[in-house]
Fold this protein.
Amino acid sequence: MSALSRKWLGLAARNPRLAWDKARITLRNRLGGRWDYTFGNGRARPPATLCLKLSNACNLRCRMCGQPRENARPGDPKYAPPDFFRQSVSLDVYQRLIDEMKRFRPTLYLWGGEPFLYPHLFELIARIKAAGLVCQINTNGLLIEKHARELVESGLDDLIVSVDGPAEVHDAVRGRRGVFARLQRGVDALAEARRQLGSRTPVLRVRGTICPENFASLSELPPIARRFGADSLNFNWTWFTTRQAGQAHQALMRRLFDIDARSWIPFLSETVLDRETRLRFEALSAELQKLQRQAGDLPITLSPHIRPDQVESYFTDVRQSFGCRDCFAVYVKSYILPNGDVTPCPDFPDYIAGSIVDKPFLEIWNGEHYRAWRRELKKHRLFPVCTRCCDLYLSSIQFV
Ligand code: SF4
Ligand code: SF4
């Protein structure tokens, strides 16, 4: 039996629902998305995952984050007007979405900003669960301790917490002291609430972003994930783009869709290949090799799956897409922003296909704007910023 089969079987024995969910989404990404891409002429069957960005506001200011932040001043690439951080979709509009989509059984993935800052979070989860749908939250974990019992009682399926390394590394990446300790207290409170209520949910998953600040300490994350009682550990590589790719993207978006696509600017990062940088890459390669040795029974995935010898090229050659030459994500998942706008892309949300405030979601999903985006994307294979977007690698996530 291959190592991969053993890991799938291990995951299925440990958490059958999580394994089924992963298998279903992997199949949809790999087969359904590819089918629609090939034969759909821009159309797609209803999405497997609906990602609701509940709030643009956040209670942290992480170093690697490319989202607008409330403390930025006009002129700063991360500046947005105050109204932007107050946007939120009403429960009535979300309810309409749930009613429309529930027969297709999408997973509802709640994120932000920080999703716990959405004022009706628990009522929304209750409505998603009442419709019989799987609900996941991706959070920085600062508010888990306060809401541990409500989280368990809500019936939430998955809680994904971001962890970037041991306490000092995590706090440095997240930009504030004591954040790791607060997360740890939240995870403990959640375990205690699950125990008191006799519940196995929400399942806890740990997600780490690989960025220069934690290159040398990645292999410290599996023991932390185990200590947290996590069911899996997923690493995403940090997203970024270069000035050349960003400007090419902006020009292309103007020509194709007549929009001013500026969301790449906060993700700008140019890597200088000096001696110090090369040494950091070497440290990262060694950490990746350690990760492979220490996975044991903890499912650890890398997205994208980059081999140690490809690390340098990930950071220095943004044209490199590691064999992923087409984006199928825009056929299988969709992003709804805090003002109700629907966009195909998570962190480059310049193109808006419609708003769920005005229209049923499915009219937007296969409406003229969405189809135009998918058709142009297929014609170009990828847009310039796509190579460092994690959704490009959706169907190539692998166990280490
Ligand atoms: S918690 Fe998430 S949204 Fe908030 S600053 Fe950090 S990376 Fe950005
Ligand atoms: S890979 Fe490109 S098209 Fe696909 S979701 Fe990311 S930015 Fe959008």
DSSP finds 14 helices and eleven strands in the chain. Residues 70 and 183 are 22 Å apart (CA to CA). The radius of gyration is 20 Å. Residues 58, 60-62, 65, 67, 112-114, 140 surround iron/sulfur cluster (ligand 1) (CB under 6 Å).
